[in-house]
Amino acid sequence: RVSEEPKTMDRSEWGLLILLSVLWGGAYFFAGVAVQELPPFIVVFARIILAALFLLPLFWFYGHKLPSTVSEWMPFFVMGLLNNVLPFCFQFVSQTIITVGLISIINAMTPLFTVIIVSSFGEEKITLNRIVGVLIGILGVVVLRGIEEPLDSLKTFGIGLGLAGTLCFGFAALWGRRRLKGVAPLKSATCQLMCSSVIMLIVVAVFEQPGSLDVPSQNVWIALIGLTLFGTAFAYIVYFQILARAGPSNVMLVTLLIPITALFLGNVFLDEPLRTKEIVGALIIGTGLLFIDGRVPKIVKRQISA
Question: How far is it, in rounded angstroms, from Cα 249 to Cα 239?
């Protein structure tokens, strides 16, 4: 099979990509506000179940039907675990330790982990460009962490949780590629969110005591609405629009733009400092992604041949 060149995006597709980056970058900001007053698992549960309830009417409007057997539900159950429950829990707990901007930059490692995982399982061929891209990405994480703190510091733990979340997203991509190929995007999103809601209901019942929590402030309620409506449900719809119109290579570019929104919102509204090493780390990780995507090598090759 001959690989295709990434599609050149038009203005409307770039507009959708920028919109998606704002929605997902805003999601980290909203989560950062919510976890200041609510336990992370409660925030994850709220994000997932409210997004599922928002998408369900659209699901029925477009004529989709829910799975009718356990075997039909199972692919969505696993996808919900890998794509929602585990990464959201890891990342929201990490946001009680590290800043909104930093976790958004760490999330940009998702395509790097995805490349490692799908290549390791024989789904895609590993290339020199991809190896270089992964190594550059790892360097970016090292820069983000810095060398001035001990390895056993709380910041290291927070970064580790964030990386665990991105690793889950990588396995979710592999699972979706193998078990959800051909499933309508809206059906995939809705069913996995429904499964995730059931899982998180059990997690909250076991590990949290919702009845003993104080009533959240107005800011937290606004953050939860923003997180579920804009950062999850609406973002899913925009994401699948870009995927269908511009392809996976172009959709991956959103991870380069998300930290811009998250860093800006965290700095302006949460008084999080903009550190030089975070900006440098984000640029290094972005370079790694462009190597994986093949854009940087193609530009270099074009310049040499010219």
Answer: 13
